[in-house]
Amino acid sequence: MKKERKPHQFIVKPYYPGGPKAMRKFISENLKYPEEALQNGIEGHVMIIIDINHKGKVIKTKIKQSLGYGCDKEADRICRLMRFKLDQVVRKGRTIFHKTIRIGFKIPKQKKKVKKVVTKIKYHISKKGESPNNPPSYHYTIKL
Questions:
Q1: In the chain, what are the domains?
Q2: Between the chain's N and C termini, which has fewer beta carbons within 10 Å?
Q3: Smallest Cα–Cα separation from 74: which of 44, 39, 105?
Q4: What is the C-alpha to C-alpha distance for residues 88 and 9, in angstroms, rounded to an integer?
């Protein structure tokens, strides 16, 4: 008769579905660079401590390292959108987990807008023997 093995840890920690790579992708897709930080050229990292309840929802956030210029509010917004996963419930307990996340703010590269230039060339060609009142003419438009 085999003895049943106990789990490695008494309290199993929550994790983001897909791992850290999926969490970084989620942050980069949903992050909206604050306008105030963009105007002032602010870049850096915001360290934020989040509290996760027994259902995997973020219930509280606290800024550990601030950047200002609207970046703290944006980091708070992103963290509250996240949902974590717990493999097992801790014996009907309502445990709160704490996790520290670092969210980076880097000014996005702007694409250069190419201005379309339209150049029009008009010229007139007349043939010998044509009447001067109604000569044949050609018009060309060249778009670059």
A1: 19-105 (3.30.2420.10)
A2: N
A3: 105
A4: 11
